């Protein structure tokens, strides 16, 4: 079952593209946006993350920390981040712990019958670690509602 608004966000620690551990608990005190995405280098995922890159000021203005999370290796994410000039961290959920904890892991990904790929999902977590926005996109081709994410951040 996926995490719902009002629930405490599950704790996790993942590696970023600089090979450093990043813990959600360490982020408390500021809003956090988690963007789970299926796979680096795919069209919709690239469009999603580049949208955030191009609008990063909207997130920075609310003091929010944005993280993109996928099951790709940190080495794949590093190359993807550099090629797309992303200006926020990507985290590798290679062991699928965060996606499982948030309830956003496909048993079988609709395309190519891959198992253990993250669903496209967005969560806004407040400074106290409570989920204030939760969206799991119906299909991998759908993008999160960026307007609703930004409105949630503005209301925090």
The CATH homologous superfamily is called Glutaredoxin
Morphology = globular
Tell me the helix content: 25-40%
Percent of sequence in beta strands: 15-25%
CATH class: Alpha Beta
Mean pLDDT: 94
Order of helices and strands: EEEHHEHEHEEH
Biggest sheet record: 7 strands, mixed
Q: Which strands sit side by side, in order, in the main sheet?
A: 2-1-5-4-3-6-7
Query: N-to-C terminal Cα separation, in Å?
Result: 26 Å
Structural class: alpha/beta
Structural Rg: 14 Å
Q: pLDDT under 50 segments (min length 5)?
A: none
Number of DSSP strands?
Answer: 7
Kindly identify the CATH topology: Glutaredoxin
When the domains are counted, the total is: 1
The CATH architecture assignment turns out to be: 3-Layer(aba) Sandwich
What's the total helix number?
Answer: 5
């Amino acid at each position: 079952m996926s995490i719902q608004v009002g629930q405490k966000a599950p704790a996790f620690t993942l590696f970023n593209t600089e090979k450093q551990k990043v813990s959600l608990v360490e982020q408390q005190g500021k809003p956090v946006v988690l963007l789970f995405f299926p796979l680096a280098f795919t069209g919709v995922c690239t469009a999603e993350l580049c949208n955030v890159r191009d609008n990063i000021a909207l997130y920075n203005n609310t003091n929010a920390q944005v993280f993109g999370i996928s099951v790709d290796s940190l080495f794949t994410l590093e190359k993807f981040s550099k090629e797309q000039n992303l200006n926020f961290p990507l985290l590798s959920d290679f062991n699928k712990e965060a996606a499982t904890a948030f309830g956003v892991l496909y048993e079988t990904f609709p395309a190519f019958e891959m198992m253990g790929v993250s669903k496209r999902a967005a969560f806004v977590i407040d400074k106290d670690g409570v989920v204030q926005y939760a969206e799991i996109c119906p299909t991998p081709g759908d993008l999160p509602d960026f307007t609703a994410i930004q409105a949630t951040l503005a209301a925090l």
